[in-house]
């Protein structure tokens, strides 16, 4: 058994994403009855990547992208002072590290060098996610420097877009250090306190796949959806969908979701209301996020992504760096009991099978097997 992945420092890109969940009230009128509302009272922001992107072209994703050196610059210290500063910047006690496996030998850029960074990783990744939401969607998850965060007050609001949004965005896209300048200009800080640890996904091994991301997913609840302005470069469109609507859009081939995004959408289908979701995030704040690297298993008729806890999930780096093949899916499903896996039948049909208990006060996807009627 070995505990770490093959060293290749150039391959792992550290990234952060934010799942924006916004409260949704649809006013009905007496003359025009509205269609029945979705099962959940919140919707998620999904951004459509450009078809010209090198990675996951055309996919719908949560806002996010690669960490930049500017996200952990010491210059942020002055902006957060005097109310917030090291070691935790008001984020509360450091979450317990959930899983030691897999350990990444190195990552692109600075490496996992908390010791070399002035800002804690927790803060830098949140700043990255907030910056990416601005760059890609024009959404400003900021709060005034002088107003202290109050978790008891429930979901907050995004900041109104400033005059000259387009010019600011162009500057930040050219040079991410301009995001700090924008925050100074607005006398705000990134609202790091509204971003809750949710999950962390490592890109699975894939033959010919040269890009691999180590992506922290945060969850942020907003009272209402902010206006969204796709940058029309990296991102060409967007939609607000409840988890059940997003699932339906995927199954009916309107949108394509990569397995991690699909898994998260299905996990969020556990929550009927935004207030339940917000409470859930606050209750598990000390648990942090588990980092998952799916193992890819090719069967005669599908591709399986095996997740931690599944009986086929072996903590051995050989399985992470190779594709394994086996018999028909039905055979291996018949033989097994302890499942935590995504079965990819085709581009628009995934089944999530979960029979294991969730860990770290998290929740696993609600519906394990989706209707075959979409085949
Ligand atoms: C990797 C991102 C899309 C950021 O990329 P960017 O810098 O914007 O180009 C990130 O937001 C993200 O979603 N990461 C999730 C983890 C990941 O790598 N997902 C892709 C999985 S690909 C896969 O599962 C195989 C397949 O295509 O079926
Ligand atoms: N107009 C455009 N069309 C397609 N992709 C673009 C683009 N402008 C930027 N990108 C790509 O978007 C990625 C940046 O994403 P993010 O800032 O979210 O990490 C980069 O991909 P690469 O990583 O392939 O260089 C960049 O090349
Ligand atoms: Mg991106």
How far apart the termini lie comes to: 39 Å
| Subunit organisation of the chains | single chain
Q: State the helical fraction.
A: 10-25%
Ions and ligands: the ligand CC(C)(COP(=O)(O)O)[C@@H](O)C(=O)NCCC(=O)NCCSC(=O)CC(=O)O, adenosine-3'-5'-diphosphate, magnesium ion
Q: Average pLDDT value?
A: 88
Report the sheet with the most strands, covering strand number, pairing sense and barrel closure: 8 strands, mixed
- Secondary-structure-based class equals alpha+beta
Flag low-confidence runs. Answer: 108-114, 371-375
Contiguous helical run count: 9
Bin the strand percentage: 15-25%
Secondary structure: number of strands: 15
What is the element string, with H for helices and E for strands?
EEEEHHEHHEEEEHHHEEEHEHEE
- Global morphology: globular
How large, in whole angstroms, is the Cα Rg?
21 Å
Explain what the structure shows:
22% of the residues lie in helices and 22% in strands. With 375 residues, the protein is α+β, with helices and mostly antiparallel strands. The strands form 3 sheets. Strands 1, 2, 3, 4, 7, 8, 9 and 10 form an 8-stranded mixed sheet that branches. Strand 11 (295-298) and strand 12 (303-306) form a beta hairpin. The radius of gyration is 21 Å and the shape is globular. Mean pLDDT is 88; it is low at 108-114 and 371-375. Residues 64-65, 132, 136, 234 line the site of magnesium ion.
């Amino acid at each position: 058994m070995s505990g770490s992945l093959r060293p290749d420092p150039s391959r792992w890109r550290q990234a952060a994403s934010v799942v924006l969940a916004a409260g949704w009230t649809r006013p009905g009128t007496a003359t025009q009855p509205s269609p029945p509302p979705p099962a959940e009272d919140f919707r998620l922001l999904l951004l459509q990547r450009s078809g010209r992107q090198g990675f996951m072209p055309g996919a719908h994703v949560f806002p996010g992208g690669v960490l930049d050196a500017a996200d952990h610059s010491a210059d942020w210290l002055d902006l957060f002072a005097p109310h917030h500063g090291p070691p935790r910047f008001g984020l509360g006690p450091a979450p317990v590290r959930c899983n030691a496996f897999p350990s990444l030998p190195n990552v692109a850029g600075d490496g996992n060098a908390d010791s070399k960074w002035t800002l804690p990783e927790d803060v830098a990744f949140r700043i990255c996610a907030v910056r990416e939401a601005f760059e890609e969607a024009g959404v400003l998850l900021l709060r005034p420097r002088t107003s202290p965060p109050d978790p008891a007050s429930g979901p907050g609001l995004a900041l109104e877009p400033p005059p000259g949004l387009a010019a600011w965005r162009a500057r930040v896209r050219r040079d991410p250090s301009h995001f700090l300048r924008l925050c100074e200009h607005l006398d705000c800080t990134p609202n790091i306190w509204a971003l809750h640890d949710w999950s962390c996904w490592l890109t699975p091994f894939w033959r010919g796949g040269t890009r691999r991301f180590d992506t922290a997913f945060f969850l942020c609840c907003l009272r209402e959806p902010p206006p969204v302005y796709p940058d029309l470069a990296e991102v060409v469109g967007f939609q607000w969908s409840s988890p059940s609507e997003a699932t339906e859009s995927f199954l009916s081939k309107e949108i394509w979701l990569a397995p991690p995004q699909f898994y998260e959408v299905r996990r969020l289908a556990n929550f009927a209301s935004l207030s339940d979701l917000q409470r859930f995030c606050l209750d598990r704040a000390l648990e942090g996020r588990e980092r998952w690297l799916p193992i890819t298993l090719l069967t005669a008729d599908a591709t399986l992504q095996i997740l931690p806890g599944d009986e086929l999930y072996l903590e051995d780096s050989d399985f992470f760096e190779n594709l394994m093949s086996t018999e028909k899916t039905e055979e291996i499903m018949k033989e097994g009991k302890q499942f935590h896996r995504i079965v990819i039948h085709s581009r628009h049909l995934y089944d999530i099978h979960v029979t294991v208990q969730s860990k770290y006060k998290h929740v696993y996807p609600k519906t394990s097997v989706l209707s075959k009627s979409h085949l």
